[in-house]
Amino acid sequence: DSEFNPCFECHDCQRVDNRTHPNLFYIAAEGSQIKKRQIKDLLVEFSRASVERGPRIYIIDEAEKLNQESANTLLKTMEEPTSEIYQFMITSEINGMLKTIISRAQCLHFRPIDKRIIREELLQQGYMPFIASGFSEYVSSSEHAVELMANSNYLESLELGRTLFHALENREESVILLFRSHQHIVFSRPEVTDFFLTILVLFMKDILNQKIHYHDLIVFSSEAGLLERLSGRISQKNIEMLIEKMLGLKSKLRYNINTSLAFDKILADLERGFNLWNIK
User: Fold this and answer.
1) CA Rg, the chain, in Å?
2) Distance CA 138, CA 122 (A)
3) Which pLDDT score is estimated for 277?
4) What is the C-alpha to C-alpha distance for residues 124 and 87, in angstroms, rounded to an integer?
5) How many angstroms separate the CA atoms of 45 and 19, rounded?
6) Considering only CA atoms, which of 272, 196, 265 is closest in space to residue 238?
7) Of the candidate ranges 67-76, 163-172, 259-268, the one whose mean pLDDT is the lowest
8) Could you tell me which of 59, 171, 189, 226 has the fewest CB atoms within 10 Å of its CB?
9) Are 249 and 197 within 8 A, CB to CB?
10) What is the pLDDT of residue 173?
11) CB 280: neighbour CB atoms within 10 A?
12) DSSP letter at 50?
């Protein structure tokens, strides 16, 4: 109904679009976390009289980045909701949120944009297939991909991921030592660290899909030869074990862990997996 759709032209629509409406509050992560201070500042705003009439709305983007303290602070507002406050939390990783928050919310699921569409848009803009494939799996739009690529650390992290798997094939250099010589790039920002670990997971999933002949699910199709050779050197069970360990580390990155040590361990497991485990 047009009565409830934005016109994008009136004063209110423009203020909402520019995030300058006094009754709209938008919260995004500072670095890798949404901090307790951000939620407390929000509650202070709600304790004050509204500048304009009408309901007040807050939007928390990437809500899975709420840390333990900020999530518990937010729970207080959810336990005693008012009719004049609307709360929206946006996340692509609902399993990363506190169950107590999920239980107090109404969950609406939206289908993400097909990754193939994003990849095709990047290819049309002139990006190489390997780059288009890697970034399209990580973002929700081609615009976001281009924004990340403006930071060279993302591109270099993507290339480092490929280099590590070639090193696993050649066995000429330890992947741990190779990573250490470039880890300043990966650890430059928590978001880059998460991106790099995602690339490792994607490569391992590709090796699994190559092994079980699900070729249509392979992301890095430009690396088909490498994937085929590596898939012949490791069992399906051990591929799945490595993916599980990588995903476990991915979920721990938001906490205060020794990231360098954690990556040394996961890369040691990776190297051992391709060099020592028996293939069955």
Assistant:
1) 22
2) 13
3) 46
4) 38
5) 15
6) 272
7) 67-76
8) 171
9) yes
10) 85
11) 7
12) P
Tell me which residue of 246, 201, 244, 193 sits closest to 219, measured CA to CA.
Answer: 201
Look at phi and psi of residue 41 and say left if phi exceeds 0, alpha if psi is from -120 to 50, else beta: alpha
Count of alpha carbons within 13 angstroms of residue 164, beta-carbon side: 30
> Could you give the CA distance from residue 28 to residue 63 in angstroms, rounded to a whole number?
8
Q: Which amino acid is at 13?
A: C
How far apart CA 107 and CA 172 sit, in angstroms, is: 50
Task: Look at residues 134, 46, 127, 140 and name the one whose alpha carbon lies nearest to residue 93.
Answer: 140
Q: Where are the alpha helices (DSSP H) in the chain?
A: 11-17, 36-47, 68-79, 99-103, 115-124, 129-136, 142-149, 152-170, 175-180, 183-186, 190-211, 224-231, 236-252, 259-275
At 68-102, the pLDDT tens digits run: 888 888 887 787 767 788 889 988 778 778 888 88
